[in-house]
Amino acid sequence: MPFKRYVEIGRVALVNYGKEYGHLVVIVDVIDQNRALVDAPGIVRSQMNFKRLSLTDIKIDIKRVPKKKTLIAAMEAADVKNKWESSSWGRKLIVQKRRAALNDFDRFKLMLAKIKVNYMILYLCLRFGSYHLLGYVFYTTSESYL
Q1: Contacting residues for 54 by C-beta, under 8 A, at least 6 apart
Q2: In this protein, which residues make up the domain named Large ribosomal subunit protein eL14 (predicted)?
């Protein structure tokens, strides 16, 4: 599969370090081989090192160094936010943020729910003879779970 995530004007990137960590930005100009000028709604246009950016598959059609209004309109027209939230990478980060925001009681409820789900999987695998789906530990100690 060919490589498709090139540094180019209009490429959407995720900031992976610094005070804008976790924000989506758009590359509006390439300064040199190490830095780009990035901009996004809610973020001041600034230069950023490529090491601080993780390129995404999303690209919007803009000209070099557009005005803020033009950039926002292009991002809304390209539906960048919904594309990001529907991608597997974006969903994974949303889940990570949601889990980080859990309090102790919510983590306890999550643990109980996982125990119930795992027990049901174990029960169904043992009932229908799908021993190959279970790990060695479950197979050898199956009598103690039922």
Answers
A1: 13, 14, 15, 16
A2: 45-116
| C-alpha–C-alpha distance, residues 88 and 16, integer Å | 17
What domains can be seen in the chain, in order of their start residue? Answer: 11-100 (2.30.30.30), 104-145 (no CATH)
> How many CB atoms are closer than 10 A to CB 84?
19
**pLDDT tens digits, residue range 31-83?**
999 999 999 999 999 999 999 999 999 999 999 999 999 999 999 999 999 99
**DSSP states along 7-57:** --TTEEEEE-SSTTTT-EEEEEEE-SSSEEEEEETTEEEEEEEGGGEEEEE
Q: From CA 120, how far away is CA 5, in angstroms rounded?
A: 42
CB 11 within 8 A of CB 19: no
**What number of residues does the chain have?**
146
**Residue 29 near residue 64 (C-beta atoms within 8 A):** yes
d(CA 123, CA 60): 49
- Of 30, 24, 27, 33, the residue nearest 11 (C-alpha): 27
